[in-house]
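Troubleshooting entry. Yesterday's outputs looked truncated, so today I'm pasting the complete records for two proteins to confirm everything comes through intact. If either block looks cut off, that's the bug. Protein one:
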Amino acid sequence: MRVPLLMQNSIDSQPGVSGGHEEGGFVLRDANGNVSVSRWQQGEQDRIILPTYQDCRFEGQEIIATLHTHPNTGGNYLQEPSETDKRAVRDDPNLKAAFYEGELVISQEKIYLIESNGQVREIGDTRIILQVDLEGTMAAVLTPDVLQDDIAVSLARAIAAANKRARDSGVDVLQSIITITQRALDGDTLWRINYGPREYIGRRGGDLIVEVDSSDSSIKQVLRGQ
């Protein structure tokens, strides 16, 4: 992969706490083995739409990789690949060629690789790799046996709280793919509830992530996937 090609996408994204937008592109290889990047149309603050492509080819050239940026550095934005990013790579029938290496996600601090199976690997520090300073730039009916299960009750309350916050943020919960995971933070356990679009092929980002304290169902933070 040619570093200047990645660098230009990062710079053009105008990374920072605000004012950035996503950039992306196809890494293409022609019949002579020459590699180039075909840029996608400029994205929005936290999402980008891909142009039409088929059979892992674009304009007659092999798509050996894809890439997009995560330009927003504010604390309410997720830096690693979102659930929609991972699903879109994993489930896209037009990105299944043996020569396709995956999708690079370039945030200010780290570069990640989404492999064709949807798994994510951290490649390394963005500034080291690019050698550039980017600075500046529920109301639910629960049966008695379920009510005895502390985890089930905690999760139900967390989903109810997260759904309300998601709706308040303009998310159509019923039309979302919801992914639930747990993580530890400062000795506490948080439910991370991710809302992604059902139609995710051909797009990246746009997720809403709500983190809820498992002990009292309070909202700890709301993040935007990109």
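Protein two, checking that the full record survives here as well:
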Amino acid sequence: MKKTLSAILALLLLILVASGCQTPGGEQGTDTHTPADSTVSVAPETDAHTTADSTVSAAPETELTVESLIDNWITGVLSKDPDGKTAEVEVCTPYVNALGKNIHVSAPYFLFSDMRKGDEIRLLISSVDEGEPKTVHVSEACVVIPGPNNDNYRQIPPLEDYTVEQKLVDYFGAESQLKLQESNYYWTPMNRVIRIDRERDVYYIAPYYSNIARFAVKGPLAVELSEGDHIYLDVSKHYQYSSADFHSYVVYPEDIIKLRVLETWEYIEQYHIYEDVTEKPALYLYPEAPTEISVKLITDGKLTCTYPAYGHDGWQKVTAHPDGTLIKDGREYYCLYWEAAVDMEPDMTKGACVKGEDSAAYLEYALAALGLTEREANEFIIYWLPRLEQNPYNLITFQTEAYTSVVGLEITPAPDSLLRVCMVAQPLDAPVEIEAQTFEPFVREGFVAVEWGGVMLP
């Protein structure tokens, strides 16, 4: 009888939950599909399918945590010369909340042997040990931009000194044996063509600082390549083959974002001519009343980081308030953040040559003249000042046409007043003469949108 009564009560409870009625505790039923004795804690509107005795806590998709960075790449700068298997790294802004500003990095083998202080690098995280600072264990590392102290990465071996991993050649001899998997490997964009197999349309490629080809492009390609060509190669994804003693990476034409032949090594040294990284554009929205807004970036460049997450159709259903507060998916933000690698040719004929120690004063003047509020200017200066004041001098310009021509901004509904500020700064060892730049005053009327960002040239 007790078992029958329990069964009836359980059936009634299931009916109440399925119909969306409130449970006796006053909360609306949630369809979690969990076995008995399981403990589930999920974010709103999450359908959790869990096994017995499991515990699940679903964090918001936009929140970067240590757990979310495992098996993913981060960017940072070497704060001192590494010793081969360990390194000290200052991480880039998006990862600071999760990892802290400075981390100790450990690798299973000598990943950092040819790297030097000041190199901008990418790291593939495998695990993180708590502490101060955190110890981050990585399985892969690569140089994105060599720093000023690294001659190893600027010495290009003669073509006859390059080699191709024989296993990579063999795998393409029997391509059906390849078990390809998508991965998040970050490509160093400057590379060299080492060998071409015309019969199979296979191009063996090495990063410009290495004399071993560990990846290949499976053609045919729209661009004619020759052995020895220096190339700029950027891809949206690739495939990885791994074994106990070998890793190979394969790219197919449909996944190539950009491929161009560079005429001479001098062009590679002028990295910024081909791919400027527009850093920390922050977009503020100030409608006259609470408004649901969507934002799209119109660019051929590659987005390298966004927060909150930038979807296929951009940032959708963002509720903006007159004080600038933004609400998306129940979470509060003060701006929309993004970074992208773009082709931009800045006009450096007008600007100001500023001593590093005078950077804060100059930015206070220039940003006020451009029309930023004190709060917006403070956030700009806090981000850029450490980068500027460490240099003897900086050539500072503010771009409009060069910037907006490569990154369009589509805001719906359209703002009545739009201000887009892009600083381009070039570190200098000695002062130079340059024509002074003037600024047009910005008038804030109606729905106001303000964006600021910048590019630091090598």
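Both blocks look complete. Sanity check on protein two: The radius of gyration is 26 Å.
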